[in-house]
Write a structure and sequence with these properties.
five-stranded parallel β-sheet; 23 helices; about 10% strand; four-stranded antiparallel β-sheet; about 525 residues; alpha/beta
Length: about 525
């Protein structure tokens, strides 16, 4: 197939883009393809439509470099200059927007990016194929039962194609909905697997573990519980090296946790997860009424931020007007006209490849993580269904009951009742009321009930805060991006997750600019 495709790419015909788009929309998996013509010395690089594998490129003075991590490009080019606009976006969202990375002149592949370069071309041709317009729906809303049956088949197909027949298949099983459906698919396919439930070091053993264990028991599979330990400085440095800040250091506990899982099950693990189920099979449109681009931008910043935009603006000494201008232009470039559909495009073009997929990529450094929810046939079918069909978990419930009524009847840990319960309608109605509240009331409720939005629990005498202060004092380059005076005024307004992103950024800048890391003084000490 690739050989036939390469003939289209290098034969000079204008329809090669259509042929690449046709190929990648039918080729399931996470991939980057390099095609090289030895005779003409032409090169073509393209990636999967969702950018499931993070990929980067650099071009200057005839040198084209493409790599899986920016650090490899930096090693070749010596470019260590941080982009202030990107730093602003990273502190706000936890990732950069558009093609930019944290580093000047190093850019991200987006889903369906095509790069063509050759000896006869003065500079590479770089473009992103227009693969998805989420306003264009192919299927009818009235045929929900038929569509649910088709989705069951596609999800089973996506699960089957990801099974390792020679290795160990393990499901990261929570008490939620997405991972249990993957487990039920494996069970229906008669694929041997084990269930493993993970809990953050600060989490309490509660419903999530209880219902995961019940699901495993109902399916008749082995189940193990792994409690994460607090990350040490050594874990922080390893994650910083592996992901270069794309996975923030608040996730450093995952490094020793993954190693424990490998020690327990042995090498050659395929780790199935439920990643993507909450975005592909459910109605992820904003609940709030969004009338224009300003409403949409406000919604995106409110619901996806790590540190409030005004605090980011203050500590960086940058007016947020430039950021607003960039974001508006990005949103206006989307093909979708409806504001809620533009939000879906933002989620799948920015947040998923900028945030979610990097968590999987971290795991990929140690084992093989997979999820059937992003199998391309399942994804495209789901996104061609009317969003109204997904409202209030209607479609999700249909699919789950068809796969396994017994598993569907187990309580969802987040709700305390199963997806088949009549209480679901009341829950969805309450959720709509919550999002219709004024933002100040919503924020108050969120602070009362969400751990991740609490003020940072790190005391001034904790190792991580001591390390953070040392970075600010010893690394002069940090003053180019962060005002210590403004930071002192606002640090108590930054919650746990926001601070962990800030610490990730300062650690990354210190490492690149000074060639050393203050974290090295805490290698065996508890940190995040």
């Amino acid at each position: 197939e690739l050989k036939r495709l390469s003939n289209y790419i290098f034969n000079g015909k204008q329809d090669f883009r259509d042929k690449i788009a046709e190929w990648i929309l039918s080729a399931d998996g996470e991939y980057v393809v390099f095609v090289y013509n030895k005779e003409t010395k032409e090169l073509c690089i393209f990636n999967d439509p969702l950018c499931r594998l993070p990929m980067y490129y650099y071009y200057e003075n005839g040198l084209l470099v493409a790599a899986r991590e920016p650090r490899f490009i930096i090693e070749l080019t010596g470019n260590k200059t941080f982009n202030r606009d990107s730093v602003f976006e990273y502190l706000l969202f936890g990732y950069t927007i558009g093609k930019k990375t944290l580093f000047n002149d190093i850019f991200k592949f987006k889903g369906g990016t095509v790069i063509r370069a050759g000896a006869e071309v003065s500079s590479p041709e770089i473009e992103r194929l227009p693969l998805f317009n989420f306003e264009n729906k192919k299927y009818n809303v009235s045929e929900i039962d038929k569509h649910a049956s088709n989705l069951v088949e596609l999800l089973m197909e996506g699960t089957r194609s990801r099974v390792d027949n020679d290795g160990k298949n393990v499901v990261a099983l929570s008490g939620g909905l997405d991972s249990r459906m993957v487990s039920a698919c494996l069970n229906n396919l008669k694929i041997p697997f084990s269930g493993a439930t993970f809990l953050d070091y600060f989490g309490s053993v509660g419903p999530d573990v209880q219902y995961a264990k019940e699901i495993a028991r109902n399916l008749g599979v082995d189940w193990e519980f792994f409690r994460a330990k607090r990350a040490t400085g050594k874990d922080d440095i390893e994650l910083l090296r592996v992901k270069g800040g794309s996975n923030y250091l608040g996730q450093s506990y995952s490094v020793p946790l993954i190693k424990r899982i490998i020690d327990f099950y042995g090498g050659g693990i395929t780790l199935f997860t439920g990643d993507g189920g909450d975005r592909v099979l459910r109605d992820t449109r904003p609940v709030s009424n969004i009338r224009n681009i300003d409403n949409l931008l406000r919604y995106i910043v409110t619901h996806n931020r790590m540190i409030p935009v005004d605090i980011v603006s203050a500590i960086m000494g940058m007016d947020k007007t430039d950021f607003i201008y960039r974001m508006k232009n990005l949103l206006l470039e989307y093909d979708e006209k409806d504001m809620k559909m533009k939000y879906l495009q933002f989620i799948f073009s920015e947040r998923c490849p900028g945030w979610h997929f990097h968590g999987e990529d971290r795991n990929r450094a140690y084992l093989r993580p997979v999820t059937p929810y992003y199998s391309i046939r399942f994804f495209t079918y789901c996104m061609n269904l009317p969003d109204k069909m997904k409202q209030n978990f209607k479609l999700y419930r249909k699919v789950m009951v068809k796969i396994s009524p017994e598993i569907a009847a187990v309580n969802n840990a987040e709700w305390g009742f199963p997806i088949t319960s009549g209480k679901l309608g009341l829950y969805c109605a309450a959720r709509r009321i919550y999002f219709a509240m004024p933002s100040k009331i919503r924020n108050f409720v969120q602070l009362k009930h969400s751990f991740s939005r609490k003020v940072s629990p790190y005391s001034t005498d904790s190792n991580v805060m001591k390390c953070f202060q040392r970075q600010l004092e010893s690394c002069n380059a940090l003053s180019d991006y962060i005002s210590r005076e403004e930071l002192e005024k606002n640090i108590e307004k930054i919650d746990k997750t926001g601070f962990e992103h800030l610490f990730t950024l300062t650690s990354l800048i210190e490492s690149f600019k000074s060639g050393k890391s203050s974290i090295e003084e805490y290698l065996e000490s508890d940190m995040l």
